[in-house]
Amino acid sequence: MTENVELNMTSEEFLNQLPELFAKSSDSRISEDPRYARILRENPTCAELVRDLEYIAEQARMLLEPENEIEPSPELWSKIQNSLETDKNKLD
Amino acid sequence: MQVQVQGMTTTNATPGLFKRNPPIAGEAEAIEKAKNGDADAFSKLYALHKRRVYTLCLRMLGNVSEAEDMTQEAFLHLYRKLGSFRGESAFSTWLHRLTVNLVLMHLRKKGLQLVSLEETINPSEEDAPKRDFGSRDPHLSGSVDRVALERAVATLPPGYRLVFVLHDVEGFEHNEIAGMLECSTGNSKSQLHKARLKLREILRQNEQAMPKQEAAK
């Protein structure tokens, strides 16, 4: 299948295309895509860059886990209630 | 495709976001009651979503005081607009979108509206990531914890931070981000890439500084 053929490009071309490649790559796993195996094998610097950027994206996804959420100050709810009360009084 | 969300039938237009924002027990009932002016039900909605909304604001703004103000604004807006929620997406998706729009509006009011956002979200040359991929420093994998990443994200230039938080953390697609930020899809992709490069740079600097700090102790 042509989709799995290793692409022939220089490291500079690869780096220039990286934003688009990440956008196209499902779950941003360029390192596991056979089309880029050769360029990554032959360019350790590109391989490290890709691995780091994939790692950053992976860690970022984990920030959405509920245990990583931050609690606002307890006073915030009182402020919201006061504002709602003010709104209500204006309408009355 | 239609799915049942806590007793409501809704169209599953964005399955990815439903996966990321699954329905919460008791939420649908609280929404219906809050729509009818039930203060306790609104308080429940606040309790269910305050952490998520505040964290989103904090990550987008990188500032505790502004994040609290925007969280307050988001819940006041929610109270006023709750009647218009029709269940076409998960409630949390709807609320987060509402929050994102409010934060972006706030940022535009602060000055970003004067020039095209496409230009203003580009940081100065000093803040831009270096295009130096030549040095072979140790890679990051396995060495960055959540706190380090959160800190690094907070130090990103605002434009990079917005795109990174919206795409990599919140899971919005580039076309959605382009719509929100009024920029091109290509610009969103390029900003995200620069944001990740900048984060890599910050995280590697922090890692290199760490042994020196340890030694100083």
Automatic annotation (TrEMBL), chain B:
UniProt xrefs under Pfam families: Sigma70_r2, Sigma70_r4_2
Annotated source species: Terriglobus saanensis (strain ATCC BAA-1853 / DSM 23119 / SP1PR4)
Record-given protein name: RNA polymerase, sigma-24 subunit, ECF subfamily
Keywords: Sigma factor, Transcription, Transcription regulation
RNA polymerase sigma-70 region domain ranges (all copies): 45-111
GO terms of biological process kind: DNA-templated transcription initiation
SUPFAM superfamilies to which the protein is assigned, alphabetical: Sigma2 domain of RNA polymerase sigma factors, Sigma3 and sigma4 domains of RNA polymerase sigma factors
Protein family membership: Belongs to the sigma-70 factor family. ECF subfamily.
GO MF, any single term: DNA binding
Gene3D superfamilies: 1.10.1740.10, Winged helix-like DNA-binding domain superfamily/Winged helix DNA-binding domain
InterPro entries hit by this protein: RNA_pol_sigma-70-like, RNA_pol_sigma-70_dom, RNA_pol_sigma70_r2, RNA_pol_sigma70_r4_t2, RNA_pol_sigma_r2, RNA_pol_sigma_r3/r4-like, WH-like_DNA-bd_sf
Domain RNA polymerase sigma factor 70 region 4 type: residue ranges: 147-199
Domain of life of the source: Bacteria
Coiled coil: none
Transcription regulation listed as a keyword: yes
